Amino acid sequence: MTLRERTVDTTRFSVVARILHWTMAALILAMIGIGAAMVGYLGAYNRLLTWHKTIGLAILLLAVIRIAYRIRRRPPPQIETMRKPERLVATGSEILMYALFLAQPLVGWALVSASGIPIHILAGLRVPAIAQTDPQLYAALRTLHSALAYLLLLALTAHICAVAFHAMVVRDKLLRRMTFPIPRR
Q: Residue 126: enclosing H or E segment and its boundaries?
């Protein structure tokens, strides 16, 4: 392998794309855990809600950065083992997840705004409301927020299962596109 092949690997996503991917993955998994804890454990509800709002805004910010980066920098070509229908499903699910990365935090932000309660995140920062106080709007947005959460969980589960299938059954190095190389000694 030449020096150029080692430094410019066109089969992998860029380092920035990989960092954004894994950072968002960790935040989304944390968000799922916090959401489950908020439903099942009321003891620290306010603290969990503050973390939920803070991580949600971080996910929204990272999603905007990630989409802008994706528009500016094309991903590596899809692997050859994927047939056209599978590529279409992969592309469609990716678009769905990007849409949910934007929609879910925005709907959450709007529903907290509609509750009329001031929005505070970690470090006591206050976030402006993006919707007017309205109990009916709050109820509708809360239902939508829950539905989007289940849709996001379904999309993430399908994504993880597809990657695991490629890694363990097809063994076509699909996962390698998004991982960091391990330096050889």
A: strand 126-127
Query: Is the Cα torsion angle 22, 28, 32, 35 positive or negative in sign?
Result: positive
Q: Say how far residue 127 (Cα) sits from the centre of its chain.
A: 21
Please state, in angstroms and as integers, the Cα–Cα distance from residue 42 to each residue in 18, 29, 47, 61, 122, following that order. Answer: 36, 20, 10, 28, 19
Record the pTM. Answer: 0.88
The tens digit of pLDDT for each residue in 84-98 reads 999 999 999 999 999
141, 142, 144, 146: CA torsion to nearest 10: 160
Residue type, 8: V
Per DSSP, 184 falls in state P
